[in-house]
């Protein structure tokens, strides 16, 4: 179940929990790649409650999780408690679902929400800046936007850098190494309306692509599009 459009006005977050011995590498990775990995909160090793949602457990609050071993996806449970380890450091990373209420308020339609789908996500050929043992490509989310509203979408999202900010591209998907916008790597294929163009934002699923390339021994993430919904209002991440 995607959380797109399910919590209007509330900030949503990507989640990754990784062993303490890899946590510094990941923190450095987020610092070097703030566009796809803007950090909203970091929990102490073994901690399971974030200040962003004090009444929720990070092991159970997202609709679905992914369990990774040596870069391989081994399970997709709805509850990650049985997989939890005391050495895991949890990172909550900004999610573009957070700026969707602002887009709608500016008159920008959300085709995936209208169609009851998850947003489309693609692995690009843009390599993130490596950090320690971590390396891999940037993932982007794509939304079909009427061409006349692309500038508005850019301006609205640029004011929210903590949830990925302005797009990284619009128009020709080949500039990002994407061959077919109707065959996403994550999420759902979304149908455009006449006059729409594809617009791409850096995406917090990037850490999952990095896990697949870097192959740490163990990690837990949310399932793409099935986010950790926080108590923070979306406007809290707006600047200016």
The chain-level mean pLDDT equals 97
The helicity comes to 10-25%
Low-confidence stretches: none
Shape: globular
| Oligomeric assembly | single chain
What structural class do the secondary elements suggest? alpha+beta
Radius of gyration: 17 Å
Strand content: 25-35%
* Biggest sheet character: 7 strands, antiparallel
Query: Treating each run of at least 4 consecutive H or I residues as one helix, how many helices?
Result: 5
Give me the count of strands: 11
Query: How far do the termini sit from each other?
Result: 33 Å
Give the helices and strands as they follow along the chain: EHEEEEHHEEHEEHEE
Short characterization:
The chain is an alpha+beta fold and 240 residues long. The protein contains five helices and eleven strands, in the order βαββββααββαββαββ. It has helices at 20-32, 100-105, 111-114, 150-158, 206-214, and strands at residues 10-19, 39-42, 65-69, 72-75, 88-94, 120-127, 137-146, 169-170, 196-202, 219-222, 228-233.
């Amino acid at each position: 179940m995607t959380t797109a459009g399910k919590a209007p006005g509330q900030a949503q977050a990507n989640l990754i929990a990784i062993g303490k011995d890899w946590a510094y590498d990941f923190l450095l990775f987020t610092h070097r790649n703030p566009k796809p990995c803007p950090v909203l909160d970091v929990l102490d090793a073994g901690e399971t409650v974030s200040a962003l949602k004090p009444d929720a457990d990070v092991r159970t609050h997202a609709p679905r999780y992914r369990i990774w071993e040596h870069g391989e996806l081994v399970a997709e449970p709805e509850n990650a408690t049985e997989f939890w380890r005391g050495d895991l450091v949890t990172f909550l990373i900004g999610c573009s679902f957070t700026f969707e209420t602002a887009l709608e308020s500016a008159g920008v339609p959300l085709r995936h929400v209208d169609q009851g789908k998850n947003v489309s996500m693609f692995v690009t050929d843009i390599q993130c800046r490596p950090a320690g043992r971590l390396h891999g490509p940037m993932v982007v989310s794509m939304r079909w936007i009427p061409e006349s509203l692309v500038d508005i979408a850019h301006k609205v999202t640029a004011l929210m850098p903590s949830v990925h900010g302005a797009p990284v591209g619009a128009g020709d998907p080949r500039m990002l190494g994407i061959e077919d916008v109707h065959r996403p790597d994550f999420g759902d294929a979304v149908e455009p309306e006449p006059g729409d163009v594809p617009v791409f934002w850096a995406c917090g699923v990037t850490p999952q692509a990095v896990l697949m390339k870097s192959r740490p021994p163990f990690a837990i993430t949310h399932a793409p599009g099935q986010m950790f919904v926080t108590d923070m209002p979306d406007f809290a991440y707006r600047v200016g």
